[in-house]
Amino acid sequence: QVELVESGGGLVQPGGSLRLSCAAPEIKIPVILMGWYRQAPGKERELVAIRTASGRTSYGDSVKGRFTISRENVKNTVSLQMNSLKLEDTAVYYCTLRGDHDVGMADYWGQGIQVTVSS
Question: Which positions ≥6 away from 55 have C-beta within 8 Å?
């Protein structure tokens, strides 16, 4: 089992910024990618941003140019810098990690962290 530790989030006004962090401190398998998805009430879970071990990044269309995913100096930790936040960015944000087991890949999810954009 892989534990993902999420931090950051909270309440911010439109136009503001927040930073999320996700760490996998106890992981003992190779990490293929880490990133974030989000789910707003009544909507499906959607991609926010992912970063592969080689440094490639991918963003959801709605956050391109506003959000940046990056690797932290601490091993197996990624951060999501969210700028110019909009009301529609309100959601529960889930960290995800894809690991490489000997018998195949597996995806792991954090418990989720609330981000609320409100005036």
Answer: 71
